[in-house]
Amino acid sequence: MIEIRKGSEPVPGYQIVEKLGEGSFGQVWLAMGPGATRHALKVLRLDKASAAKEYRALAWIKDIRHPSLLPITGLWLIDDDGRVIPDRLVVGETLSDLPVGAKPNAVIVAMVVADKTLADVLNDYRLKGTSGIPVDELLGYMDDAARGLDYLNSPRHNIGDQEGVSIQHRDIKPAAISSFPLSFAATP
After folding, report:
1. Which one of 18, 107, 123, 165 has the fewest beta carbons within 10 angstroms of its own beta carbon?
2. Which three-class secondary structure state does DSSP give residue 156?
3. CA neighbor of 14 nearest in space, from 152, 161, 141, 113
4. 125 vs 112: which has the higher pLDDT
5. Following DSSP, what letter does each residue of 84-144 receive, concatenated?
């Protein structure tokens, strides 16, 4: 796995600020991107068969846009030495379709990052001594998340040579719902 630390620049134009989390597939880092914009950089190891499937799925959905979804702003393959592999993959190809000699070790995904997740908002209210998020506020977050999920689940997306495809999110949790702006995404 490539080494990422505070101050490093794992992909051009994105400087690491701090680690946000870690899971079974990789890590999530806060980075400053072009124009001093905040991004979550997900670093996914490609040493597991399911990670290659994840890369292919990300390549398919990276251009999906909706007001209730935080966008993917970049997608890079990284080799064993931490260099960006100039990929020429198109939708439907696999990692084995990369140029000869290219050995991807990780994929890095850049996404816009919100100030807080729904889990953070809940924690803030609990620190104030309340039992949870006020109902009207919570319903606003749920309504926005539902709009994003409805958009993904509707059979309207063109994926590769398939038209009218529905997309299943598979990671619905308070830490994946952002609070401001009201948005929904698979971020930490």
Report:
1. 18
2. coil
3. 113
4. 125
5. EE-----TT--GGGSPTT--EEEEEEEEE--S-BHHHHHHHHHHTT-SS--HHHHHHHHHH
The separation between CA 137 and the C-alpha centre of its own chain, rounded to angstroms, equals: 25
Q: What's this model's pTM, rounded to 2 decimal places?
A: 0.76
Q: What six digits make up the tokens of 24?
A: 């079974």
Tens-digit pLDDT profile for residues 11-52? 999 999 999 888 777 888 999 999 999 999 988 887 655 556
Task: Indicate the pLDDT class of residue 181, thresholds 50, 70 and 90.
Answer: very low
- Distance separating alpha carbons of residues 11 and 5, to the nearest angstrom: 13
Supply 2's token pair.
């490539």
Tokens linked to 123: 């924690």
Phi, psi of 15 (to 5 degrees): -100, 130
